[in-house]
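Lecture 7, part B: from sequences to assemblies.

Below are the input chains for today's worked example.
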Amino acid sequence: SQQGEEDPQALSIQEGENATMNCSYKTSINNLQWYRQNSGRGLVHLILIRSNEREKHSGRLRVTLDTSKKSSSLLITASRAADTASYFCATRGATNKLIFGTGTLLAVQP
Amino acid sequence: EPEVTQTPSHQVTQMGQEVILRCVPISNHLYFYWYRQILGQKVEFLVSFYNNEISEKSEIFDDQFSVERPDGSNFTLKIRSTKLEDSAMYFCASRTMGNEQFFGPGTRLTVL
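Predicted structure of the full complex, as structure tokens:
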């Protein structure tokens, strides 16, 4: 079965620095999505990248996808304290369900 | 901006009791989902629902679970006889024909 694994599990940076999180998965995908979750709250969709895309940008977010390595990365540039949250990758395969990764807990220190 | 809503935000119940978690998906969405997240663990898929029937369910979604869309707006998850291990955050999600699933804020279920 698909399984998203993120690394690092936790990341602590200073405001203004860039944060990079990685995600690996096991089987073929239709698309890969990144979500943010603030402590104890719901999941907020950040960005979607299709299997035929290699890179995508949205504001301060940059996502890459390497289907040959079955991996993706999320880069948050010029981080802010408000970016403190857990970040999850989620893959969608042939069916519509999302398979979530284990998440990276990002702490941005002011 | 339209959003998925869920009620209650927190439900406390005794083991063996039935609970119903409620969701109001975004109004023009066609596909509906329930996921759960046990504290400190991954978000796990439970079930997807389309055209008034279950389209896919996970191994977790056993006979104790059921879903229903009783009217044009609500989407419910029922757990017939709760177990301690059912304690988790339960998220509802919905989408249109596109790929993006919009998630609700979740219901925290605590089984005592």
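Note for the exam: The mean pLDDT of chain A is 91. Keep this in mind when comparing with the next example.
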